[in-house]
């Protein structure tokens, strides 16, 4: 596969690449819409991801091509590139600009070629993958000795200020810190983190793409952020907290009378109970209780559906199917929602039957097929050559 990338690179730029890098996508096992509320999340990196081939040029140009998109882009080397645009190449450009400003880089020119096998708009963090990949690769070729946490913070900054999505830090963190067969337990307020052995035993991690794409910039994602901030301000009038996740479900019962708006009440209820589910999920994994972990996944989806209202008919159809399936012990949407992907713990050896049955069920209700990918929990970014 890498040789095919190299040939394509040569066909585009008439030169061999200097280096090649890979960064994974991610799924969030549990803890959805918690990262910007200062709580606990449990993501992991996956096998699917993005590759980058790169070489220096001496033309004072940054040229970007992708196997996955027809649009390519050339821009003079500088430190003020266009911001908040939808095309794929603004993600790596934002990272390059941020690195230039942070390290005062003297770039003679760069030729970049990207290839990804993450379904775009599926909620598997294709954007974080390309951001972290670019930061990791550029840091390596310029010998910047950038620490992993520096990459996380820089790429989140790009997502927030350059792209205009008010995401938390989880996606970039999961992509950067991924470890094979490990889930990452991350406190999004303190950045305290640890790895949790994720032994799925007789089950595989199935990623199910609704094939309804969504873009965070165009969704109600930022609206949910604003709603949570509204609840936080109300609670801060009476109690000393910095984030919604600073209070537990018992305290929430004591103070929820302060929130008169029913919609805001539901939003906060999801956040606070979901944060507690992550803590319970840690216990389940450490004790090897996959049945309990699966029940927490189903509970998480129900909360995202009823209280946070970010699922939609496509995701709900998949979870309805999984709920009644004898070979699935847990399933939930993953990512921001509004389309994208669900994940399920699926009995090994049942992949073909499950996919066939789901296709029939889903097409009858939605009108087209979903896609099912069996993924392993993988490592973070790496240099290929």
Automatic annotation (TrEMBL):
Swiss-Prot/TrEMBL keywords: ATP-binding, Carbohydrate metabolism, Cytoplasm, Galactose metabolism, Kinase, Magnesium, Metal-binding, Nucleotide-binding, Transferase
Active-site residue list: 171 (proton acceptor)
Keyword Nucleotide-binding set for record: yes
Keyword Nucleotide-binding on entry: yes
Occurrences of domain Galactokinase N-terminal (ranges): 8-55
InterPro entries named in the record: Galactokinase (IPR000705), Galactokinase_bac (IPR022963), Galactokinase_CS (IPR019741), GalKase_N (IPR019539), GHMP_kinase_C_dom (IPR013750), GHMP_kinase_C_sf (IPR036554), GHMP_kinase_N_dom (IPR006204), GHMP_knse_ATP-bd_CS (IPR006203)
Domain GHMP kinase C-terminal: 282-363
Domain called GHMP kinase N-terminal: residue spans: 91-179
Chain positions recorded as substrate binding sites: 32-35, 221
Transition state stabilizer, annotated site positions: 26
Pfam annotation, one family: GalKase_gal_bdg
Subcellular location: Cytoplasm
Chain sites annotated for binding Mg(2+): 127, 159
Coiled-coil features, chain-numbered ranges: none
EC number: 2.7.1.6
Pathway assigned in UniProt: Carbohydrate metabolism; galactose metabolism
GO molecular function, one term: galactokinase activity
Residues where ATP binds: 66, 121-127
PANTHER family the record matches: GALACTOKINASE-RELATED, MEVALONATE KINASE/GALACTOKINASE
NCBIfam families: gal_kin (TIGR00131), PRK05322.1 (NF003705)
Family the entry assigns: Belongs to the GHMP kinase family. GalK subfamily.
Functional description taken from the UniProt entry: Catalyzes the transfer of the gamma-phosphate of ATP to D-galactose to form alpha-D-galactose-1-phosphate (Gal-1-P).
Name the record gives this protein: Galactokinase
Species this protein is from: Pedobacter montanisoli
